[in-house]
Amino acid sequence: MTTTQPEAGTNRLSFLPVPDETQVPEGVRKLWGKAEANIGFVPNVFRAQAVNGEQFLAWWNYFNLLLNKEGYLTNAERELVAVVVSGINRCLYCAVSHGAALREFGGDPQKADAVAVNWRHADLTERERTLAEYAEKLTRHPAEVTAADLDPLRAVGLDDHQIMELVQVIGMFNMTNRISSALGFVPNAEYYRQGR
C-alpha cells in the first residue's frame, strides 16, 4: 500500500505516512464518515491507525465498547481514568482528546485540565480520587498490584463489574498511549476548544 505523506511545511498527523480513503478497507471509510457526521471531524487517531486498517477496526471495536457504550462506570469516571493514565504516560494525543471528553462529561473544564496535568491538584471526590490512585498504581507499578489494592475500590462502592471495567479502561489507555506516543499522533485542533 502506498500512503500519502504531508508535503514539507504542512501539518503531519503521525510519524508514519497516513493513508487516504482510497487506501483503507470499507469499514474504515464507513467509520470515518460516521465520525464526520456525528462529531464534525475525523479524529486523527482514526486516520493514523488506519495504516493497518483491519487491526485499527479491531482496536476501535474494543475501545468503543469500553468508552462509548453504556458501561458499569459512568462516562465521566471512564474519561477521568483515561486522562489520569494519559497524563502519567505523557501521551499528548490521549490527554488532549480525552481531556476534552472529560470536560464535556464532567462539566468542569478547570478540573479536567488539572487532572490532565496532575490529578492530585484536581478537586476530586473521594471515589474519583480512589479511581485515580488505582489507575496510577496499575500504570506505574503493575507488578506491585495485589488483591489488597481492590479494598479501597470496594470501600467507595465499586462492585466486581465496575472493578473489571476500571482495569480494562486502564489497560486500554496504557496500550493506546504507547501507540499514540510511539508514532507521534497529533491531536485534532477541535479537541482544544471542546467543552470550554
From TrEMBL:
<dbReference type="InterPro" id="IPR029032">
    <property type="entry name" value="AhpD-like"/>
</dbReference>
<feature type="domain" description="Carboxymuconolactone decarboxylase-like">
    <location>
        <begin position="55"/>
        <end position="136"/>
    </location>
</feature>
<protein>
    <recommendedName>
        <fullName>Carboxymuconolactone decarboxylase-like domain-containing protein</fullName>
    </recommendedName>
</protein>
<dbReference type="InterPro" id="IPR003779">
    <property type="entry name" value="CMD-like"/>
</dbReference>
<dbReference type="InterPro" id="IPR010195">
    <property type="entry name" value="Uncharacterised_peroxidase-rel"/>
</dbReference>
<dbReference type="Pfam" id="PF02627">
    <property type="entry name" value="CMD"/>
</dbReference>
<dbReference type="InterPro" id="IPR004675">
    <property type="entry name" value="AhpD_core"/>
</dbReference>
